[in-house]
Give the backbone structure.
Amino acid sequence: MQSEKDNKKLIEVISLGKSFANNEVLKNISFQVEPGHIIGLVGPNSGGKSTLLRHLIGMYLPTRGSCLTLGVEAANLTPEHLANIGYVHQEASLMSWMSCGEIIKYVAAHYKTWNRDLEKHLVDIFELSLKQKVGVMSPGQRQKLSILLAACFEPQLLILDEPASALDPMARKVFLELLLDILQDSERTVLISSHILSDVEKVIDHIMVLGEGQLLKDCCFDDLREDYVKLELMSLAGDLPTILPFRHVFSCERNGGHAMVTMRRSELSLDEIRSRLNCEATPHPLSFEEIYPLIFKQSRPAQELSHV
Amino acid sequence: MLIRIDTHGGVPIFRQVKEQITRMILSGQLTPGEKLESVANLSKQLKVNPMTVSKAYSFMVEEALVERRAGIGVFVAEIPKNKQREMTGSLLAATLNKAATLSIQLGLKKGEAQEMLGEAFTKIQSQQEGGNAKRKGQ
């Protein structure tokens, strides 16, 4: 990732591999994270997202390669380092015998940087009942509480593992706004994993896609979106040529003079396509939900698909 | 600035922001010298990543639609007449191309297509005038 203002790295993962017994869960993963971003980590369930995030805070140790968080090997993170990292994971395990208010007080006492105003704001807007015992809270309420606990000490790095999975739409909206507020301070970064794409789509600026333990994409989110397109071709005279000059095609529906081609963006410009094929070419952008399955699919040259 | 973000359509958010502000500038809704909303404010208002708004602004700076004044903000630039026409043309290009292609496919002559566009133009204009008169009458 490029950043003009700062080349300080919050995370640096180098050739990370992880195996449990003979099962290779992460394969040769390398990436860097700099301050001032909201990064989405997406991928299918059991694709390795949680395993990767756990390496960042030293909960798991790499089988191969290394993982530096805040400049330190994650295995050697001290309490001072950890005081700069917030971590929320899927099955928030909180002390069930405490009340919501007690657990907030208990955690707040550990941090000099605790933001009381933010705490009050989130208790209020998440509609948390301070007297309720954590053990009887709903999964959604518990998730809200864990987000509050991780956000209020204002860590430099906030790692969220499927944080919004149990939240209702209203709480999700509040949660996304919270992420954007955090980013107003350009020194801070949020790394958020999700399999619900619409959760993260509006707020992230960078995306990483993890599939079968491999990092398939690590790029600016807008670049990813513009790399895939559905191109509509309308011939100006007769049928379109049998072979279309595109090299990375996923699907092609055609009917004489009309075709819809889903593909990686062509190296030809629209005007070049128009003049070569004597047609009008209209690119239709694809939503992230439409792009996502294509990332896992092999594209082929158009001539191999021309019988379709 | 009233901007609407559509997260389902597939157009990257920075492009949507850029296109809508460009339209406001070309239509005179935003005038030269006018200050744009700050990146922080607009990203809060639209609930999108500040980087996204900043990217939209940078593209508009590159196209000389707006100017960045260090430490003060981003302002609508003075746009020369010929450039204004060129930019209006590129905003309309996709829609016009599609209409022209369809006209050719349907076997229309250029004159016929122009006539139809003219009719559509007149119809919408009179609807607009009707609407304005009604509002004035109220």
User: Anything to note?
Assistant: The radius of gyration of chain B is 19 Å. The interface with chain A takes residues 5, 7-15, 40, 43-44, 47-52, 55, 94, 97-98, 100-102, 104-105 of chain B (CB under 8 Å). The first strand of chain B starts at residue 66 and ends at 69. The beta strands of chain B are 66-69, 73-76.
